[in-house]
Amino acid sequence: MNEPLMIEKIALYGAPDRMTDALLEALLDKGLRVVVIVDDPTDIAARANLSAKSGNPFDAASVARSVAGVDSVIAVLSSRQLRAGCDADGFERTYDAIIALLEGLPTARVERLILIGDHAWLDDAAQLPAEKIEHLQHSLHKSPLAWTLVDAPGNRASDSQTNDPTAIITLQHYACSVIDQCLPGTSAKQRICVDARPQAEEAP
């Protein structure tokens, strides 16, 4: 069994978005350092343990430059930023981002990659380009990275019910669960589904 990776500094793709915001808060609450990779770093307000870099998640060379020096990368493929202008099912942007990240991280000597998004292409690829599906599966299989595919939360947790405190709490719980279950590398080379529902505390 692989030893858990020592994670202190994380690069985060997909901001600004409710999911990336929740992940950012959860990471900072755990005392970790976070580098948000965005088009314009000046959009990110300065905070303790938080910095920003410019970068393109769809270009391997840009990825390698942007994530140099971090221990892990989290990419929210389902975020509004990474899906902007994409095709109806979002697969093309998902494909481009995953390939760029798989190629860029080893160049930067980053071992850990967490991909949060709609991974339905693993379940039903009948309507998708077969050559890209095959390339994506092959690239994941041969990658030296400790990657994990995490299914994005359902509409109840991630849609636009911004005035519903239950939805916000659920998203925060999901973010914490992703970090606890995935960040050390214990779910490497797997696709997992994280429960977004807050768990009731057991009675003493």
TrEMBL record:
Organism: Phytopseudomonas seleniipraecipitans
Gene3D superfamilies in UniProt: NAD(P)-binding Rossmann-like Domain (3.40.50.720)
Designated name of the protein: NAD(P)H-binding protein
Pfam families listed in its UniProt record: NAD_binding_10
Domain of life per record: Bacteria
NAD(P)-binding domain location: 21-150
